[in-house]
């Protein structure tokens, strides 16, 4: 079951997905292994103001929980993406099984554009 993590900051966010919490919630190991067999926790990168599709297990990761609590991340259901978006629909790019979507433009930009198009219609 997937969720969408929506970044509300202008900063890139990287979250380690610890084996003990993430893989346990996921039900299988998502870690990578070094040549010498040492397990390396996986991570999720969320670009500034982007929407990233992750497994719901990511909500069990303390770092992700802190970011949500601090308002740096919002959680959206996957269904919200399939509903019509009036202005700009996010583009989803699949990379390594994690879908990354370009963020919907900030509200101020959209309002500015709308104001411009209204002006053009009048003249
Ligand atoms: Zn693991």
Q: Kindly name the structural category.
A: alpha+beta
Which small compounds were modeled alongside the protein?
zinc ion
Unreliable stretches: 85-89, 103-117
Q: How would a textbook summarize the main sheet?
A: 5 strands, antiparallel
N→C terminal distance: 50 Å
Question: How many DSSP H or I helices?
Answer: 4
* H/E topology pattern: EEHEEEEHEHEEH
Number of DSSP E strands: 9
Indicate the mean pLDDT: 79
**What global shape is seen?**
globular
Spatial order of the strands in the main sheet? 7-1-6-9-8
Determine the strand fraction and express it as a percent band.
Answer: 25-35%
Helix-residue proportion: 25-40%
Number of domains: 1
CA radius of gyration: 18 Å
Secondary-structure map:
Layout: E1 2-7, E2 13-17, H1 19-26, E3 32-33, E4 39-40, E5 42-46, E6 51-55, H2 62-69, E7 73-77, H3 79-82, E8 92-95, E9 98-101, H4 107-122
Antiparallel strand pairs: 1-6, 1-7, 2-5, 3-4, 6-9, 8-9
Bound molecules: zinc ion.
Structure description:
With 123 residues, the chain is of the alpha+beta class. The chain has one domain (2-122). 29% of the residues lie in helices and 31% in strands. The protein contains 4 helices and 9 strands. A 5-stranded antiparallel β-sheet has the order 7-1-6-9-8. Strands 2-5 form a two-stranded antiparallel ribbon. Strands 3-4 form a two-stranded antiparallel ribbon. The longest helix has 16 residues, at 107-122. Bound molecules: zinc ion (ZN). Zinc ion binds at residues 19, 23, 29-31. Zinc ion (ZN) binds next to helix 1.
What's a concise summary of this model?
The chain is of the alpha+beta class. It has helices at 19-26, 62-69, 79-82, 107-122; strands at residues 2-7, 13-17, 32-33, 39-40, 42-46, 51-55, 73-77, 92-95, 98-101. The protein has one domain.
């Amino acid at each position: 079951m997937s969720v969408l993590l929506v970044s509300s900051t202008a900063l890139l966010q990287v979250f380690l997905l610890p084996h003990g919490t993430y893989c346990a919630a996921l039900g299988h190991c998502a870690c990578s292994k070094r040549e010498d067999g040492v397990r390396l926790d996986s991570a999720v990168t969320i670009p500034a103001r982007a929407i990233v599709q992750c497994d719901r297990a990511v909500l069990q990761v303390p770092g992700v929980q802190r970011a949500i609590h601090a308002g740096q991340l919002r959680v959206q259901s996957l269904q919200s993406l399939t509903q019509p978006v009036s202005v700009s629909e996010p583009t989803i790019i699949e990379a390594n099984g994690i879908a990354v979507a370009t963020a919907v433009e900030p509200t101020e930009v959209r309002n500015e554009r709308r104001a411009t198009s209204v002006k053009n219609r009048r003249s």
